[in-house]
Amino acid sequence: MVCFRGYLAPEYAIGGRLTRKADIYSFGVLLIEIVSGRCNTNSRLPIEEQFILERTWELYERKELVALVDTSLNGDFDAEQACKFLKIGLLCTQESPKCRPSMSTVVKMLTGEMEVDDSKMTKPALISDFMDLKVRHKQESIIDTRNSSSYNTSSSTSEHQDTTVISAATSTFTTQHDHSM
């Protein structure tokens, strides 16, 4: 799943919840990659530039999106058009699926049938936020495991006895299930 890390919508990557707008998120990342001429992640770059979506948002806030356009074009591009596509990519990667445009709206914006309205654009769901959440969740799980094991070994309350009974019942069930195979 590592190769999909930068393309998965946050609601799917973290919660396993697939929405109608999950593909819109992926399309937004892809659109930004096309305009920038680079991959969504590049660990060889300085930390602040490693994740394309984070870099795009930072440049958008500073009104410097044009700096993200593929350098191999040597300045031979329509800056207004390139920035428009980058803004569409950002609209597609909004954290909340409800804030992302429909694909038909995206097509209309790309073809010029509809203006790009970035007035209500919010910070997209960023990969570093996911990684932080996963690291935090993993650390909390380790702490919970340690607390549970020390609780079970040192506690002698009736709660401990209930926990032991439940664990024993689960173990017994598993053992019986294994014997019946």
Automatic annotation (TrEMBL):
UniProt keyword annotation of Nucleotide-binding present: yes
Source domain of life: Eukaryota
Start and end residues of each Protein kinase domain: 1-126
SUPFAM superfamilies, alphabetized: Protein kinase-like (PK-like) (SSF56112)
Entry keywords, A to Z: ATP-binding, Kinase, Nucleotide-binding, Transferase
Molecular functions per Gene Ontology: ATP binding; protein kinase activity
Residue ranges, annotated region (Disordered): 144-163
Biased composition (Low complexity): 147-158
Protein name per the record: Protein kinase domain-containing protein
Source organism per UniProt: Trifolium subterraneum
